[in-house]
Amino acid sequence: MKFSELGLSQKVLMAVEAAGYQQPTPIQEQAIPPALQGRDILGIAQTGTGKTAAFTLPMLCQLEQGRARARVPRTLILEPTRELAAQVEEAFTKYGVNHKLNVALLIGGVSFADQETKIMRGADVLIATPGRLLDFFDRGKLLLTGIEVLVIDEADRMLDMGFIPDIERVCKLVPFTRQTLFFSATMPSEITRLTEAFLHNPVRVEVARASSTASTIRQAMVASHGHAEKRDTLRNLIRSAENLKNAIIFCNRKRDVAILHRSLEKHGFSAGALHGDMDQMARMASLDAFKNGDVSLLVCSDVAARGLDIPDVSHVFNFDVPTHSEDYVHRIGRTGRAGRSGVAITLVTPDDKKYVDQIESLIGKEVEWEGPGLSELPPPRETSRAGDRRSADRGSRRGEKGGRSRSKSAAVQERDDRPAPSGPARRSPEPATLITARRNPEVEPARTAARPHVYSDRRDRRPRNQEDDGPPVIGLGDHVPSFLLRPVVFKTAKAGDE
Ligand code: AMP
Which residue range(s) make up the domain with 280? Predict the structure, then answer.
């Protein structure tokens, strides 16, 4: 099918042609004609399917008639994260080049005053995160009574983020007669309930189940032990990866995003970070730096990265196995997009076995192991440098032979753990050259600005040369001698004892 057969206006068709799209994607093909007729749409699709254009293009046609009034926006798009909202704004800029539209973005972390000016001017399109939208509404800064089209995007992510009560409230504030375009990658029961309550006889369009992974992605698992060793394993994987152009690296926790980001930078890799605790400017700066190629690696948490459209990512690394198997599908869907090939490698520790089983059962296939599997994994190596130093000393005291036998394993480890030298020497000639930190004067201030947010944990106070020793050990860490774990039995004093 051609775009010209979908019923889109001439202005929109010209923009689509300028964007270089040859033919509509399945979701566009199925959703655009009924959306143009004013029908409600229930789109079950993930990012990467072209769903943004599936709702943006018919909206642009609708907006060709009429104009916005001050404080009364005409259409509203709800997005779970600021990045997604900003991405949709970009889509309006791209597809709306032939339209003179006022597009306003209401997201947290940006000054109220600028946003208010845009609303006052009259917004044809209002793109918002639920919290900031309701904040504006409650301050009496905007009215939702003029909304003709309401888009709820990434509804399942809204659910994960606790936005459903806000969404319900917004649905009650907009006119009953509006058109609703609703998108979700999955349909848990809470989302189904929401669609039953707020969609009117929707056309259901389902393009790919959230459990399917693209065949263009080569998936692999790599067994490793806890965090410090995983960082080591990851570095080796990055260095040895073939055709690695850029990579997104996922961690389960924000705190680990910060630790891994810092560690990669320390080892001379060109890396940015993206997680929910960073302020808006820092998040945008990281994302832009990655999109522009100023950094090659982006360390992310799920919430921050969900749905981001970063075309042409060659590799995805799961530093942690996701504990929700659907997140695995979303994560690895960052690569191998639009028919391109991609690689997704997941680091797995013995504790992750049950999550791997859940992932394999969701995607309906086994993921191959690269290197030894969990059962053949050698015991964890000693991670403490003091330990390494002690064994090195022992080796040299034992004489030539012992010293040499140490030199093999310890030297390999030292080479891998050694931070890259600073200055021009950071540009190493090995495959990591591509990834070695590039200093971009325009990006640098923003990255520096991100630091207080990225590195806000207590480890900041430690000297830099200790930063890569893994999370601080509390008490005896995992190595509590078993005699300390035995219950303590107190003898009761008998009368006469003394
Ligand atoms: P989305 O699922 O909306 O995040 O879109 C994923 C990517 O597909 C974006 O980079 C779009 O620019 C691109 N895209 C959207 N529609 C088409 C199309 N019909 N042909 C080729 N690429 C498209």
Answer: 217-363
**Per-residue pLDDT band at 208 (split at 50, 70, 90):** low
Q: Whose CA is nearest to atom 13 of ligand 1?
A: 50
Predicted local confidence at residue 395, as pLDDT = 34
Candidate of 8, 23, 52 to mutate for ligand 1, largest count of ligand atoms within 8 Å of Cβ: 52
Task: State which of 93-102, 104-113, 339-348, 472-481 shows the largest mean pLDDT.
Answer: 93-102
Query: What is the mean predicted confidence (pLDDT) over 251-260?
Result: 94
Residue nearest ligand 1's atom 16 by CA: 50
* 134 CA to centre of ligand 1 in angstroms: 30
Report if residue 398 sits inside a domain.
no
Ligand 1 in reach of 246 Cβ (< 6 A): no
Q: Give, in order, the Cα–Cα distances in Å from 413 to each of 65, 160, 418, 419, 464.
A: 66, 40, 8, 12, 19
- Of 171, 206, 241, which closes a domain? 206
The pTM score is: 0.58
For ligand 1, is residue 333 a contact (CB within 6 Å)? no
- The per-residue DSSP string of 11-23 comes to HHHHHHHHTT--S
Assess whether the C-beta atom of 311 lies below 6 angstroms from ligand 1. Answer: yes
| Tally of CB atoms within 10 A around 323 | 13
How many domains does the chain contain in total? 2
Q: How many CB atoms lie within 10 A of CB 17?
A: 12
Do 120 and 54 lie in one domain? The reply is: yes
H/E segment holding residue 159? helix 155-160
| Distance from Cα 157 to the centre of ligand 1, integer Å | 20
327 and 190 both lie in a single domain? no
Q: How far apart are CA 275 and CA 278, in angstroms?
A: 6
Q: Which of 22, 25, 44 to mutate to test the pocket of ligand 1 (most atoms within 8 A of CB)?
A: 25
CB-based contact 34:10 (threshold 8 Å): no
Mean pLDDT, range 294-301, rounded to an integer? 94
Write the residue with the smallest CA distance to atom 11 of ligand 1.
Answer: 50
Q: Are residues 64 and 122 in the same domain?
A: yes
Residue 312 CA to ligand 1 centre (angstroms): 12
Q: Read off the pLDDT band of 105 (50, 70, 90).
A: very high
Q: Within 10 A of 353 (CB to CB), how many other CB atoms are there?
A: 13
- DSSP code per residue over 328-372: HHHHHTTBSGGG--EEEEEEE-GGGHHHHHHHHHHHTSPPEESSS
